[in-house]
Write a sequence for this structure.
């Protein structure tokens, strides 16, 4: 294809000649695509994060309910649960939330023992890497990256003083930090031997926070749930599917808000496009008339207008995408992210995982650039189709 | 070379403000001829020029140039016809004021994607011919009226047209610049270009190189 450099030069010249107007269009276009793409990037990241988190959740959680509230469950129930056909494993969990007042955040403190079957892959790796007997003897813990940051920011670089229910302090040393496959999951977690968790929370040694089950055949989950409820009427049985629905509801609610923001941005964009499409300035019309009068064909004029619109919209699109990537993944999307993650404000911050979805970018490209080009081309075509004499008059 | 047959042009036809600009005009112009169209404002001179240059279409009749019925041609063909055959000098110059002198002059050639070196050469020659080579890179709106008109003439001539059409070319010029323009037209006449000038400037009525003077009144030849 023979590229007409003069035509492209003329188009660039036209953009520069209308300096303020071109800059304003470029600015508005960039801001809108930036907003739209940031929303989609954040949404994609959290969706990915959520997917990974859901994948790591246990198949069945058995909790004891007393007076309508979750209470600790007797360890002896583990053996009974294991007797059910189809139950592959039953693991008692010792965990709880520890509120760190100075930072205003909650940590999830999880107790694990090396000889237990771990219900999470990330815990499996931790038990492989750390000697839990040694951790117990040294009063040490392994913390998530978010916890490490919060503690360091509050002068606890190497250890942390937990306040026990009786008001006494329990000094625990930070042995290491760990990073799980998802930051939502790992960011607020502190892992330490079970005995130490029992001590910090003042829990009974013969009880656990809850019991988690894995099954051989997921099809049998409803039957197993029914059997547990029959055997222990004071239990609440939560399946992975229940958790998925609950998480999904939160996500859908939040994405509903994002959708509203998305619609507002998109609406503004279409308003601008409509305004562009509804007519040209008298100066632009006259210029088209002059070009026709000196021998430009309608398609020459449209070609030039195409170059103008493409240059502006493509520069705006590219700048907006780069800015959005920087905003979301380097600056961690301040303000915008809060809409989505507001519910976890009491937990330490987590990083949005980098997810570059080509389809999202392509969707934005085809939703904005062709529309803008059409909004420029259509009124230009209307004017260029008129008699040159009429346009210049 | 150019034939106008029963040309009629009506503006705002069938509307309250309908205006008959030209009534049944029959004229012909020969190759290399210099013709002056005279008449008061609103007599139909500019409308006739616009029809000959295929800038607008007649309501009735036709314009034939070199046996081509240009008034019946589709829009893209008339544009191409203008690019290849006509150099139009407008009364108000119709330059793009924010472009440089050079960029204005090369405008008619841009769609044909010319060779850069040859184009530069042609531009330099034409700028020299009209003594505006020092203004090559200046923005047109910074030039005087006379200089702007020379840029407009240069633009009209850059594609070596066979027909030059000038609409009130001296309306915005002082006496000296008007004479300069007449000298340019005389030079063009020598290169056997057909020139049609619409004017009511008396300077043009006694020129010895003008072949014919046609007078229009209320849209009719008198």
């Amino acid at each position: 294809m023979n590229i007409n450099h003069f035509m492209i030069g003329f188009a660039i010249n036209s953009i520069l000649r209308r300096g303020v107007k071109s800059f304003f269009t470029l600015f508005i276009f960039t801001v809108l695509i930036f907003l739209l793409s940031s929303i989609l990037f954040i949404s994609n990241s959290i969706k990915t994060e959520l997917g990974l988190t859901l994948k790591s959740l246990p198949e069945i959680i058995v909790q004891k309910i007393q007076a309508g509230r979750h209470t600790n469950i007797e360890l002896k129930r583990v053996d009974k649960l294991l007797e059910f056909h189809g139950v592959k494993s039953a693991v008692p969990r010792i965990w709880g939330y520890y509120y760190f007042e100075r930072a205003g955040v909650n940590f999830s403190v999880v107790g694990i023992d090396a000889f237990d079957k771990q219900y999470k892959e990330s815990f499996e790796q931790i038990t492989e890497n750390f000697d839990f007997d040694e951790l117990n003897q040294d009063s040490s813990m392994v913390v998530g990256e978010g916890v490490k940051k919060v503690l360091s920011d509050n002068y606890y670089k190497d250890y942390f003083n937990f306040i026990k229910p009786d008001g006494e302090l329990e000094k625990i040393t930070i042995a290491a930090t760990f990073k799980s496959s998802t930051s939502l999951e790992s960011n607020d977690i502190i892992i330490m031997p079970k005995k130490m968790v029992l001590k910090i929370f003042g829990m009974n040694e013969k009880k656990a926070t809850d019991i988690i089950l894995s099954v051989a055949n997921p099809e049998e989950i409803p039957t197993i749930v029914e059997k547990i409820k029959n055997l222990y009427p004071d239990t609440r049985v939560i399946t992975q599917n229940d958790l998925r629905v609950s998480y999904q509801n939160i996500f859908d609610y939040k994405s509903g808000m994002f959708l509203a923001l998305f619609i507002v941005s998109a609406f503004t964009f279409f308003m601008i496009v409509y305004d562009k499409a509804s007519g040209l300035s008298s100066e632009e019309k006259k210029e088209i008339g002059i070009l026709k009068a000196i021998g430009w064909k309608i398609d020459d004029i449209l070609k030039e207008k195409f170059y103008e619109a493409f240059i502006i919209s493509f520069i705006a699109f590219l700048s907006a995408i780069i800015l959005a990537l920087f905003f979301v993944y380097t600056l961690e999307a301040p303000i915008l992210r809060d809409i989505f993650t507001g519910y976890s404000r009491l937990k330490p911050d987590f990083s949005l995982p980098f997810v570059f979805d080509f389809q999202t970018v392509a969707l934005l490209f085809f939703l904005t650039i062709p529309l803008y080009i059409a909004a420029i081309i259509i009124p230009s075509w209307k004017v260029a189709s008129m008699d040159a004499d009429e346009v210049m008059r | 070379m150019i034939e106008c047959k029963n040309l009629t042009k009506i503006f705002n036809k069938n509307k309250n403000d309908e205006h008959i600009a030209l009534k049944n005009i029959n004229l012909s112009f020969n190759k290399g001829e210099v013709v002056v169209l005279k008449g008061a404002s609103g007599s139909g001179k500019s409308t006739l020029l616009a029809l000959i240059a295929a800038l607008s279409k007649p309501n009735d009749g036709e314009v034939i140039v070199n046996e081509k019925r240009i008034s019946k041609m589709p829009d893209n063909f008339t544009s191409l016809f203008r690019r290849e055959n006509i150099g139009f000098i407008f009364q108000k110059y119709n330059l793009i004021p924010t472009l440089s002198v050079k960029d204005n002059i090369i405008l008619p050639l841009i769609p044909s994607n010319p060779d850069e070196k040859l184009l530069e050469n042609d531009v330099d020659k034409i700028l020299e011919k009209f003594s505006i080579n020092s203004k090559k890179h200046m923005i047109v709106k910074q030039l005087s009226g006379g200089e702007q008109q020379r840029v407009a003439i240069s633009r009209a001539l850059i594609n070596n047209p066979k027909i030059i059409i000038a609409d009130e070319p001296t309306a915005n010029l002082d006496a000296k610049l008007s004479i300069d323009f007449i000298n340019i037209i005389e030079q063009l006449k020598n290169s056997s270009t057909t020139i049609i000038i619409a004017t009511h400037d008396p300077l043009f009525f006694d020129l010895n190189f003008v072949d014919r003077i046609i007078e229009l009144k209320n849209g009719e030849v008198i």
